[in-house]
Specification:
alpha/beta; two-stranded parallel ribbon; 8 helices
Amino acid sequence: MELTLNKIKVWILVIILIVIAIVISGNQGDGEERSVVSKTGSISGDIFLTADELYVAGDVAGDLFAASGDLKVNSEIDGEVAVAGGNLSIDGKVKGSLIVAGGNIDITADTDEGMVIVGGDVHVQNASITGNIFLVGGEVNLGKGLNVDGKVMAAGGKVHLDGIFSRDLRVAGGKVTIGGEIKGDVKVVSKHIRLLPGTTIAGSLIYYSPQVIDIADSVSIGKDIVYIKTSQIEKNREGLFFVAGLTFLSLLVGLILFSVLTVYIAPAMLPACNKRFQSHKGKALMTGLLLIFSGPVLSVLLISSVFGIPLGLGFICIYLLLGMIGYIVAVFILGERVLSLLGKSQSGSSLSQLLAVFIGILLMTVILLIPVLGVFVFLIVNAMGVGSMLLQVLFFRRSLLIRQIQ
């Protein structure tokens, strides 16, 4: 998808959606009931929604922006759609582009300007897509009944494609299965590649794999078949693993030292941030996402503005520092939760704080080993930490102002 003014408007409105979500979720606590919002009937103009559960069934004469734990859309939408959540189901028709981020994603909506999808378990089927598809997921299924008039770029742990594709396919995954009709070229990178019987590829098949794949007689390939063996990559893996392991160990030691320094300098900070997160989970998450996604954009704008490069580079340094502190807060919250479940929570003590941080770092390391989904979970957890830290800073500043007034 080209970067047009319309696409820029979409991303600006996504940031606005996050800000609105902060305001709406600001007073939510642990004891409150789940919020449920249902929108039916014709809706004129753009619509911004956030709730624990959302259901949109009315036609929207504008853009739709929504964030929810459970979201169902069955509408004809004249503009763009940008949604995020845990369980997402989108049906109907989208005349603009579709941007989706979530855990379980099920899409059967026709789309006129392509889609960008990032999720854990992604299913797109029985839909007509005009425009390019960019898709990353743990398990990806572009199933039967799918007609795509555009390029497809898909990556995941398991990738299954079976439909009508008018242009090229670019696929990478642990296990890749391809079927249906492809009118362009197919390029695949995978250890395990399977072409379903009856598959038709009008262009060339180019694949990177440790072994040659079996191609059934019923499979039709119009042009060349190019096989590139990845054994050389396998031979170089030991060196790559050594460098990666050394880098990871250095980062781990750095994080541990930074954690010790944080607990020593500000022993009350981590428990305070955890308390702020427990009372304002939604607000902390949305605040963190706002900073994480808007920071790089603001950095580029500053560097390219009249203020010059020094101000932009200074902002980048502050952004990275906040990210590091936010990560320590995030792993502390995660580790403290584990200790709490085990009945060992004593967050007032420096040693127990460091123990919680170490447990959190270990869990996040394991989570990052999960292909694709691990990065998504890491982003969410880190956003919670960054958001909790910023909320605590704002709370502390407000408390100081109140004391000065008194």
